[in-house]
Amino acid sequence: MVAETAQKSAISNRIAKICCCQFLGALIFAIGLAVGLTIGIYVYHGNKRESFSLEQQTPQCPTRNPIIDLDYESSVFAPLTTREMVQAAHSLLNQSVVSSLDAAIDLRQNFILCMYLHAPEKVKVINYLDNGGPKVGRYAKVYVQRGAASPPDVMAYKVGPLGSETPTVTPITKEGDIHFNARTYDTVELAYYDKLVKKDMDILAPLMAESFDGAVYPRDLYIFYFNGPPGYRAEERETRFVVGFSGFDDKNDMDLFHLLPLSGTIHCPGTNSSEWYTYSFYYLNQGPYQSSSKLMEAYSHGRMRKVKLFKGFRETIKSRVFPIRDERKPLRNFAHQPGSKSYQPDGPRYTVSGTKVRWMDWQFHIGAGQMRGPSLFDVRFQGERIVYELSSSEIVVTYASDTSAQNGIIYTDASYGLLGGDFPTLILKDTDCPHYATVLNTSYWSSSTQTPGQLQSICIFEVDGQEPLWRHNSISFAAGLRNRFLIVRVPTVVGNYDYIYEFKFQMDGKMFTTVSATGYIQAAFWDADNPHVGSDKTKSPFGYRVSDYAMGPIHDHTFGFKVDMDIISSSNTFKLINWKAGSILEALNTQVNIQEAPSYFVYNQTRFIKWETLRQEKGLKLNYDDQKFWTVVNEKEKNKWGVERGFQIVPLHTAAQTLTEAHPAMKALSFTKYHCAVTKRKEEEQHLTSMHDINRILDPKGHLDLMLDKEGIVNEDLVTWLTVGFLHVPSSEDVPMTTKVQTGFMLKPFNFFDRTASFDMPEYFESSNHEKDDHEPAPETCYEEKYKKFCKYC
Question: Pseudo-torsion of CA 75, 78, 83, 84, nearest 10°?
Fold first, then answer.
C-alpha cells in the first residue's frame, strides 16, 4: 500500500513539473512574440518615417515647359492649322470651286480631297529670314476632285494669304491635267464599291461558307480594294479587290494577314456609278470568270479545284493577328518589374516656339503635310545655315506574289497620305517617345467629312545615348564626352505598315535622318496544292509560308527624301571623292605629273583619293566596287586650313532597286533607280513623284527623270534627292508584328569646322597627377514626380 502511494506521488510530481515547464515555455513564447511585434512595429514605422522624411528632404527633379508658344500661323514653315484649313475651304466654297462642305457628297460633286501648306518661294523666304525683307504669307495647297466639271478632273489650287480678309484662289494645274480616273482613292468612291460588290458576295455566299469555315459576308469577311495600280493609263480605272477575314474588333481595321483566294475587278471609270460593273473573278487562281454567277456555277458543278479551311479556323483568327501578349507563355525573368526609364536631370535643354526648335547651337523649323509627311526647314548650327529643306517625299512598296489579286501590287504611299487619317493620335503613349517629350500637333483634311482634323504626331526630346561621342584613355590622362542628342520623331500609319521618321541632331554637327518600318505584313493566301509550287510546301518563288493559310510575299520599302542643302549660302557644288587603289604613280599623278615613283614607298600599290566635280545634273548609285564620298561644298568659303567647307552625305544601310527598266512602272518610279540624284533647284520641282502617277504609270507627269535634264550645277542652288530602303523577305518572325527595321542617311561635317565642334561642351577629363580634373555638371539627388521613384541622377 505504501509503495503504491509513493508511486502515485511520484507521478503527480512529474505531471506538475511538466505543466510548470509548459507554462514557462508559453510565457517565454508570449514575451518573445511581444518583443518581436514591438521591434517590427518600430522598424516599420521608423522606415516609414525615414521614407517620408527622404521624400520631404529630396527635391523633385526640376522641370519647365520648353514651349514658348504654339503660334503656327506666324511661322513661314509650320503646318496648316485647322482654322487656316477652314478659311481655305470657305474661300473655295465662296468662289464656287467646291459644291459644298457637307459630308453627304458624291462623285458628281466638287469636293476637297486634301490640303497642306503650299511651299513658300525660297528666294522670298531667304530675303525675309536673312535680310529683313517682307514676311512671306501662308498659303494652302488644295486638291479638289471636280466631279461636276465637264469633263470631270482633279485640280490643285493655291489659296491665301491665309489670315487675310479676302484670300485669293489661284489654279496651280490646268483643267484636264489630272484625269478624273487618275485620282487618288477616297472614302466616297469606296462606298460605291461596297454597294456594287455586295451583290456578288450574296451570290457567292455558298462558296464562301463552304470554303472559309462557314464565313458570312459582311459578318466575318470584308473586301480589300487597294491592290493597285488601278490602270496603266490615266483614262483607265480598274480596281482589283480581294476577300479577307475581319480579324480585328473594328471592321474598319484591315486584317491584311488573312486574305483569301477569292477576288475580282471593278470597272469604275467616270462619275456614273450605274455604269460600273464587276468582272474577272478568280477562285484559287482559277479564272477569269466574267461574273460572280459564272464562278458560282462552275464551283457548284465541281468544275474547279476547291479549298476548305479546317473547321474552327475562324475562331483562331483574332489570336493570330491581334498584337497582345501571349498569355499561354510565362513572363520572362523580372518582366513584372518596370523597365529602365530616361529622365531630364535639370529640365529640358531645348525650347519650342511655334514649330521652331533651339537646342545646343542647333535651330530649325519643323514642317509637315498630310500627303508627303514631315520636313525640316532652315536648319542651322552655330548660326550658319546647313540645310534649307529636308523633307520626306515618297514611299514606294512593290510586291510580288502568285495570287490573282495581289500580283504586281505597287503602292506609292504619298497618294494615300503619309501624315493624316482616321486616328485619334499617331503617338503611342510611353512607346514612341519618353514621357517627358514635347508633343506637337499637325492637321489634316478629311475628304469623308469635309472638315479638318488634328493629330498628336510630332514629339521632341533630348536623349542620353549611353555611349561616348568621343573618348580617349591615355597613360597620362583620360577624357571623353558622353553622347547626348536631340530627336524629332514622327510616327505615321499607312494601311498595315507603321513608319517612324526620326531626325537626330548631335553636338558635333552631325545630323541623322532615319525611317523605320513596323506593323504587320500584307500576306497572300497559301495554297498547298498550287500547281506552281513544287514538292517543298514551305516556300514559293515569291516568299515563305508563315501560317496555316498565309505566305509572306516578298516586297521592298523605298523612301525618297528631298535634301536642299545650303552650305552657308545657296551657291554650292557637288563633289565626288573617289576612293581608289592602284600604283604609286597613279596616286601621285592625281596631283603632279611624274614619271618615277619615289623610293621611300614600301609597296608599289596603295590607296588614294581622286577628286571629281559633278558639273551636270545626274543620278548616282552606290557601288561597293567603286566607292565614292558624296560631298556638297561651298567653294567660296574655306576653313582655317584653306579647305572648302562642306558636308558629306553618308547613306546608312540601304538596298538597291531590283526591278528592270522593262517593268511598266519604272518610269513613274524613276527615283528608285538612284541612291542620290543632284538637280538645280526649281520651285516647280517640289517632289520626287506626282501623287497621281501611280494611276497613269505609262505616262507619268512628275517623276525624277524629267528633272535630270543635264543643267549645269556648279556653284548653283542644288537639291540632292536621296533614296534609301530595304528588301523584305517576310518570315515567321514577322507574325503577328514586324519588328522595327531601319534605314536612312547622315549629313556629316566635312571640313566645315576648323576642329571638332563639340569642344565648347563641358566633358570628362582627368590627368594622372590630378593637376587638371574636369567633369560635366552633376545633377543633385532628386526624385521624378511621374513615377515617384528615388534616384541619384534622375
Answer: 80
Q: Where does 187-321 sit in CATH, by number?
A: 3.10.450.40
Chain centroid offset of residue 358 CA: 23
Q: Find the catalytic residue in 139, 497, 501, 520.
A: 497
Q: How far apart are CA 487 and CA 379, in angstroms?
A: 14
Q: How far is the C-alpha of 397 from the C-alpha of 517, rounded, in Å? A: 11
| Residue length of the chain | 794
Q: Which amino acid is at 724?
A: V
Q: Among 459, 466, 472, 458, which residue's Cα sits nearest to residue 485?
A: 466
Backbone conformation region of residue 280, classed left if phi is above 0, alpha if psi is from -120 to 50, else beta:
left
Dihedral through CA 437, CA 440, CA 446, CA 451, nearest 10?
130
Residue 413 falls in the annotated catalytic set: yes
**DSSP 8-state assignment for residue 709:** S
Instruction: Give the strand pairing for 644-651 and 451-473.
Output: unpaired
Q: What is the pLDDT of residue 54?
A: 42
Contact assessment for residue 190 and residue 225, using Cβ atoms and an 8 Å cutoff: yes
Is 73:162 a contact under the CB 8 Å cutoff?
A: yes
Backbone angles phi, psi at 504, to 5 degrees: -120, 130
Active site residue 464: no
User: Is pLDDT at 203 greater than 90 in this prediction?
Assistant: yes
**pTM of the complete model:** 0.90
Q: Matching CATH topology for 68-182 and 382-416+495-761?
A: no
Find residue 651's DSSP bridge partners. Answer: 745
SS3 497: strand
Residue 784 binned pLDDT confidence (cut-offs 50, 70, 90): low
Could you please report the per-residue DSSP string of 91-129? Answer: HHHHTTSSS---S---TTSEEEEEEEEPPPPHHHHHHHH
CA atoms within 13 A on the CB side of 417: 22
User: Dihedral (C-alpha) 181, 185, 188, 192: value to the nearest 10 degrees?
Assistant: 70
Q: Which own/partner contact pairs does 753-759 have at CB distance under 8 Å and 24+ positions apart?
A: 753/509, 753/639, 754/639, 754/640, 754/641, 756/470, 756/508, 757/381, 757/382, 757/507, 757/508, 757/509, 758/469, 758/470, 758/481, 758/507, 758/508
Catalytic choice (413, 432, 498, 508):
413
Pairing of the two strands 543-547 and 110-117: unpaired
Question: If 0-12 CB within 10 Å is exposed, 13-18 middle and 19+ buried, where does residue 332 land?
Answer: exposed
Domain residue spans in the chain? 1-57, 68-182, 187-321, 382-416+495-761
601-to-349, 470, 594, 605, 758 alpha-carbon distances in Å: 52, 33, 15, 9, 37
- Contact of 270 with 152, CB cutoff 8 Å: yes
Q: Which helix (H) or strand (E) holds 190?
A: helix 187-203
User: How do residues 302-317 score in pLDDT, each as one tens digit?
Assistant: 999 999 999 999 999 9
CB atoms within 10 A of CB 349: 14
CB 285 within 8 A of CB 402: yes
In CATH, what number does 382-416+495-761 get? 2.70.98.20
Cβ burial, residue 781 (10 Å; 0-12/13-18/19+): middle
Terminal alpha carbon distance of the chain: 89
Contact 135, 124 (CB under 8 A): no
Q: Residue with C-alpha cell 534627292?
A: 721
Specify whether the CB–CB gap between 154 and 692 falls below 8 A: yes
Residue keyed to cell 483562331? 316
Please report, for residues 482, 486, 786, the alpha-carbon distance to residue 63 in angstroms, rounded to integers and kept in the order given.
22, 17, 12
Fold of 68-182: Nuclear Transport Factor 2; Chain: A, (3.10.450)
Cα distance between residue 211 and residue 296, in whole Å: 12
DSSP, collapsed to helix, strand or coil, labels residue 725 as: strand
Average pLDDT on 227-240 reads 92
pLDDT beyond 80 at 421? no
Per the CB < 8 A criterion, the answer to whether 66 and 352 are in contact is: yes
Task: Name the phi and psi angles at 413, rounded to 5.
Answer: -70, -20
Write down the residue that cell numbers 516586297 correspond to: 555
Contact yes or no for 266/276 (Cβ under 8 A): yes
